[in-house]
Write a structure and sequence with these properties.
two-stranded antiparallel sheet; single chain; alpha+beta
């Protein structure tokens, strides 16, 4: 479900589960924003930058974004109990 880079990013944090949960939410949000019907979770990668997270799309996710002429951005949030993400395709 997560790329090696996502797993490494989370493992380097104090509470890895929170970061992975937020990334899961982001992958789902991107899939919904692009109306993906068939895709692999590895095709939506959340990249930690120290600032706003970035996305790396590949496979069906990248093809769909290109087909629609859209760029997708994501915002993540998490607490000890909850995680959420919002994807905006424009």
């Amino acid at each position: 479900m997560f790329t090696e880079a996502e797993l490494a990013y989370a493992a380097a944090r104090g509470r890895p589960g929170q970061h992975l949960a937020a990334r899961f939410c982001a992958k789902e949000a991107v899939a919904k924003a692009l109306d993906l019907r068939s895709w692999n979770f590895h095709e939506v990668e959340v990249i930690g930058t120290g600032g706003a997270p970035e996305l790396r799309l590949s496979g069906a996710a990248a093809a769909r974004a290109a087909e629609l002429g859209l760029r997708v951005e994501v915002s993540l949030t998490h607490s000890n109990r909850d995680a959420a993400a919002v994807a905006v395709a424009a």
